[in-house]
Amino acid sequence: MSFFSYNLAILIAPILYLIIHFLSKHIHHQATYYRIGALFIALLTILTRPSFLDLLMTSGHLGLSFFILVIFTSVFPKKSNIHKNLNLVRGDLAILGFIFLIPHAVARLNLALAGYNSTGLMAMIVFTPLFITSFLVIRKKMKPIRWKKLHQFAYIAYGLIYIHLGFNLSINPNNFFIRLSPDAILYHLLALIYIFIRVMRKFNKNKLTLKTN
Known about the structure:
By secondary structure, the chain is mostly helical. The protein contains 13 helices and 2 strands.
């Protein structure tokens, strides 16, 4: 796999944001239709494997680009237009991202069950209850604190996705190995940027709390 194709999700994410910038309110208010459209595309990809969708869908790049935006929403200042646009549709993007990742999960299922790069399958398993409870009709039946605690497991799923992207891993007892993926430098960089910003914000918040006290 070439460096370009391996990092395609990172290249798609800014383009996806430009679409969201102009359509965030429409996506939020017409979320059901977007979800139905995403499900149709996912099923079409699984059943027919059209070449024009294969690179985006079966490889998982399109779904991953949605999750990159979901993860990095909290990185941008709350008063910024980027944060406001993404935060409005953050839940919608997570649902669409999960749906768009289904063809990738189906296509790689045999490899994952054999122990090769199975962290992607683990992430999908963790994401499944989060996906189900992201629908408003389900969310309304849950206590807010319980819902929030459940969705903190998303960080575990993100960690598994990072391992899935950044490393070639086999947990098969007959062929165990873990190696850095040579094309994953941009994903390692994104992870470092995200962690650095979150740590600095936590540090500044604690510093401000100490001053006010």
